[in-house]
Each structure stands twice: as C-alpha cells, then as structure tokens.
Design brief:
Layout: H1 2-6, H2 8-37, E1 45-49, E2 53-55, E3 61-70, E4 76-83, E5 89-90, E6 95-100, E7 105-113, E8 122-132, E9 137-147, E10 153-156, E11 162-163, E12 170-179, E13 185-191, E14 194-199, E15 202-204, E16 208-214, E17 218-228, E18 238-246, E19 251-259, E20 277-283, E21 292-303, E22 307-315, E23 328-335, E24 339-347, E25 355-365, E26 368-377, E27 382-394, E28 397-408, E29 413-426, E30 430-443, E31 449-464, E32 467-476, E33 488-497, E34 503-512
Parallel strand pairs: 2-9, 11-19
Antiparallel strand pairs: 1-3, 3-7, 4-6, 4-8, 5-7, 8-9, 10-12, 12-17, 13-16, 13-18, 14-15, 14-17, 18-19, 20-21, 21-22, 22-23, 23-24, 24-25, 25-26, 26-27, 27-28, 28-29, 29-30, 30-31, 31-32, 32-33, 33-34
Length: 513
Amino acid sequence: MFYIINNGKYLAKQSIRNWFVVLVLFSLGVTVTAQIRNGNVNREVDMKFLFPKMETTANKSVFNILTIKNNSNFKFTGKLNLIQPEGWNIVGDNEIILNIEASDSILIPLRIIASKSVLGEVAYAIVASLSDRNEVSILSEYCFVNIPRISGLNIESPSQVIYFDNKTGIAKFHFRIKNKGNINELVQLNFETNENLAIEGRELDSPYSYEYNIPAYTDTIVEINVNLTNKDVTSNDFFKLDLNTQTQDTIYKNSLWFNKLNNSYSHTIPQENKCAIIELTASDILSTRKPRYSLLAKGSLLLKNNIDLYYYYRNSNLEEDISYYYNDRGYIGVKNDYFKIQAGTVQNIFNEYVFGLGGISEFKLKKNSIGGHYSNNDKTLQTFYGGNASISPFDNAKFSFGYSENNLELDAINSKILYSGAELSFFKKSRISLRTYLNSTTHNLITSYEKQGFAILGNYSANYRKIKINARVEYGSPEYSGLSRGKNLINANFLYSLNNGDFINFCIQSMIL
C-alpha cells in the first residue's frame, strides 16, 4: 500500500498513456474498414454484357443485352454512354439517362451493325461507360466483336498476246487484282529467268520479284513494262515469260506471250483467188506399164466491176487424143454478185445423169434468182435442158422450183423432171432443207411404155452450244431415172462437247441400194 500511495502520480500518467493507445487503434480500425468498403469488392453499381465476346461479318448485325444493377440502398441516377468503332452503328440512342431504384436492376437490349469495311482477324470493342449524376465516370464494360477472316482474291492476267511497240521497244501489260475479302493481301509476282526479256529495264538473268500490298475491298491495276534485251534478235517473233503469282495461301502459275511485229506482211492468197494453178501428175513411172500423165489447170482473174473470170481444165491422160467425152473436162465462166454464166462441160446437175458440152446461167435480184442449163453429147446423143428459180420472202425462208428434160436419143428414152425445194432456219441455230424430184420417163426403143418415179433429199443441221447435229436423208424410188434411183440413205451425226475439251460422237449410217 505504501508503494501505491507513494507512486499515485506515476499511475495517473500510465493510465492516460493506455487510453491514448486504445483510441489510436480504434481510429485505425475504422479507417481500414472504410477502405475495404470503398474498393471493388462491394461496388454500389454493377454492369455486365450478356455476351462478352461475339462474332459477325461485314454489314451484319449482332444482338446483346447490357445489365446494370444498383447494389446500394439509395436510388442511382446517372448516364450510360455507348461507344462503337468508326463506321459501326448502334440502333437507338448512344446516351441513356438512368434512374435505378435501390437494389434494383435494368436490362438494356442492344442491336449493333458492323461496318461494311471491317477487317478480318480483328476484335472490335463496344464500350459501355457509366457515369454518375456529376458526369464522373465510375464504371466501364467491354464487349468484343470478332470478325473472321474472309479471303476473296482474284487475279486477272493477260490472256492474249502482248505486242512490243516498234518505236519504244516496250510492251506494257496490266494485272488487275481484285480483293473482295476483308483482309489485306500481300501479292508477290515472281518472274522466271529469261535471256531475251527485261522487266522495267532490269535483265532477267536471275528470278525477279515484285510485292504489292492490296487493301481489303479494293481493286488494284498493276502496270508492268517489258522490253527486249536485244532489239535486233530475229531468231523468233514470239517470246515466252513464265510468271508465278503468290499470295499467303495460293500460287498461280501462268505464261505470258510477247510478239515482235515485223514491218513485212505476207498475204496468203486462197486457191480460188489465184490466177493460175497448174499441176502435172505422172503415174506408173516404175511400172511395166506405159506411164500416164495428167494435167490440171485452174484459176480466177478479177476484172472490172468486181467480175470474176474463172476457168477449169483437167486431162486425165495426155497420151491419148483430146476427147471431151472420155478424158477431158473443162469450163470457163464469169460471175459477180448479180449473175453467173459458164460454158464447157456440164455434168450431173438437177440430180440427173448428165454429161456433155453446154452451159449454165444464173441471174440474181436481191434474194431471188432465175437460171437455166443446157447440155449436149454427140457421142451418146444426149440432150439435157431446163430452168430453175428461187424466191426468199423472208430472211429465214427460201423456196425453189424447176423443170428439166433429159433426151437419150440412142436409147429412145425421154425423161421429164419437176423439182421443188424449201430451206428454213429456226432461231439462227438450226436449219432444215427438203428437195423433191418427180419424174416421168417414156421408153420407145422396142415397145412404148411410161414410168413415174420420185426422189426426196432432206438435210438438217443444228448447233446448240455443246450439241451439234447433222442429218441427211436420201430416197429414190426404183422407177426414178436420176442419181437417187433405188437409194435409201440415212446419215446422222450427233456431237456432244464435254467441259474438258473432249467430245462424244454418235454416228448412224445406213444405205440400201
């Protein structure tokens, strides 16, 4: 007790010190608790997208729902800002005023339309930013929209021959590169070595490459200049340049052809336009028989007023005397767009057995024509004559008719032939023709009697893209006196073209004499 009484002053100081420590500890506890409650663990407002990650393509829309929850015991008033990438659209308002009761939540539906020029393999962010009534940002939430890669690269290279300019010695050609995809494409042009050609003045003694970055949704035209390393080269006129076009996942291989035009030009005259063609043929030269020689001469001369003078002569045996009835054939004539007159050998016309000397004539007026023919053979005493005409009332129709007589005095036979025909075309792709011959033959050699016969000749042709059809029919009755006598002929050809260049051919042939 003495100790306590004597140290009362000491005990009072110690008590004050203890109470001070307790107050400090209490204040620190309050501060720590306040800091925990004001952190991110227990927020007054929560915000969340239903789908944090989504996927779409250009110019397409996506749907999402934004949930905002008020965790406090007080009404929340604030503003929601929706931020989209450039070129994107949000259906509705981008700013929304919010009034959320205590412990309540709201759902905000969002329809978002992607830009038509979005890039592939990129995730675009839709940002929802929440601010309080003082416009102080308190919370942000993100929705990422992923754009998948779409490749749509098309390279158009020259498919025709490229010509060098004679003045500059340069040949220009173009590549058209279409990038319809949503990613930027790196295109590499790789030129193979070539001893005769140079690219942009650089000789191709080693492979050479160009690189082009083609943006998405764009068309690009690339122009390249090619020149000859030696302008005096005359070994060939065509030059081949091999090219490999390489992208990220594809390689295109093709060849370009260049042509060096010469200053000279050679024109090949068709045989029917040459003034003279002469052929001399020898046969049986090494045989024990006597050699035979034949001669062929033909040609055409262009006169004034666009008139052609043409001729033909053939002798099958020059060793024998000239005979128009055995080994000689020949004629001469003139023609233009309005008439045709021919004199000389007349053989097998009007579907009749005819051979002799005479002439053929034809006169044209627009799409109509009229003509005649005459033949006489002193050896067989055959006389043949007649006429024919044709009219074309429409562009796709033509009708013809005619009459002839064939007199065989040596055999005492007289034949009269009546002819008619028609040609029709349909849709410019098919054509059909039909010819009929009616004949009446009188025999007066021993006894007199008369026979009637007929002949029919038909043709059909059609061309429908991959299908080609050709058909021919010929029939002659036994009593007919002409070339088709006793014939029954059918010839049909059906051709179908496949995609790879091959074709299927069906052919039908039938002939009964």
